[in-house]
Amino acid sequence: MDRTKILVTGGAGYIGSHAVVELYEAGYQPVIVDNFVNSQESALAGIEKILGVKVPLHRIDCNDLEALRAVFAEEGSLRGVIHFAAHKAVGESISKPLEYYQNNVGSLLTLLQVMREFGVEALVFSSSCTVYGIPDALPVTEQTPTKKANSPYGATKQMCEDILRDVATAPGASLHTILLRYFNPIGAHPSALIGELPLGVPQNLIPFVTQTAAGIREKLTIHGDTYDTPDGTNIRDYVHVVDLAKAHVVAVQRLLEGKAALVETFNVGTGRGNSVLEVVQAFERATGQKLNYVIGPPRAGDVPAIYADVTKSVQELGFRTASSLDEALASAWKWQQTL
């Protein structure tokens, strides 16, 4: 079977590796680009075990114009791109803003230049609910105004969205883009062969939870319990990473079938908000593991509460999440145990 080639930047990363699996299983030929700054080689072995095939890999940085040109030339016939490659930690972006602007905005500009040169016109962009800043009302819809971002990371996603709108709507432009605004991805592939692999101390809640349960970390610190939420801890919309990966396949299909407008935006979440304490309780319930946790000071850049209205994703994209919070947490624990 002749498979349609889709370039996946950051394809060895957490979300990227799951998207590569879902793309292949949906009949596409994913091609991975990754520089392994924020991912690990073991993800490639996991992908290969799940699929039974090696996925083409180009070990380059997306900011490297000549290297990216060489990939497009070598692969030929690329029909679309999913752009995951980016630095992604809110807290780290506050201490390293220059690196975040250079990498996240710079890599998109380089990619767009090469896509134009090679006539590749379909792009799924990995955006984020951080573009909403601190929203005035919940849940957020795609029409919720984007406000000043709470971190340089969020600002890079806003800038990238603005760039994509300008490029796609310029006279004579041929680029079609779907912006997927993720909420909080958690969990792992049911095979437990790929999952979230943080380098060093985890920046995200769930790897810290699972590492604490496994005894790797002494305790989990919950960042603040005085937010204006029912139990005082942050509220987020936790979406199973496999569901999130499937949303990318649906978006690619929509682009390649010519059904997408020049620029479309979709929230990808469950439509439900859960507090950090609720997640801790759900983890204990789903796994039978007791967690040692303490309350610490709030973390810079954290938004008190945000969760999605997913009506547009369901009605227009035809996408709905399938997994519960407990299922996602159980898969994260299964993955931690295989590590």
Automatic annotation (TrEMBL):
* EC number annotated for this UniProt entry: 5.1.3.2
Superkingdom as given in the UniProt entry:
Bacteria
This enzyme catalyses: UDP-alpha-D-glucose = UDP-alpha-D-galactose
Q: In which pathway does it act?
A: Carbohydrate metabolism; galactose metabolism
Q: Where is the NAD-dependent epimerase/dehydratase domain?
A: 6-269
Q: Which cofactor does it need?
A: NAD(+)
The first-level EC class reads: isomerase
Q: Which GO cellular component term is one of those annotated? A: cytosol
Give the Gene Ontology MF terms in alphabetical order. UDP-glucose 4-epimerase activity
Q: Tell me one GO biological process term.
A: galactose metabolic process
Q: Which Pfam families match?
A: Epimerase
Alphabetically sorted, this entry's keywords are: Carbohydrate metabolism, Galactose metabolism, Isomerase, NAD
Xref: InterPro entries:
Epimerase_deHydtase, NAD(P)-bd_dom_sf, UDP_G4E
What PANTHER family does this protein map onto?
A: UDP-GLUCOSE 4-EPIMERASE (PTHR43725)
Subunit composition? Homodimer.
Which family does the record assign?
Answer: Belongs to the NAD(P)-dependent epimerase/dehydratase family.
Q: What is this protein called?
A: UDP-glucose 4-epimerase
Instruction: Name the gene for this chain.
Output: galE
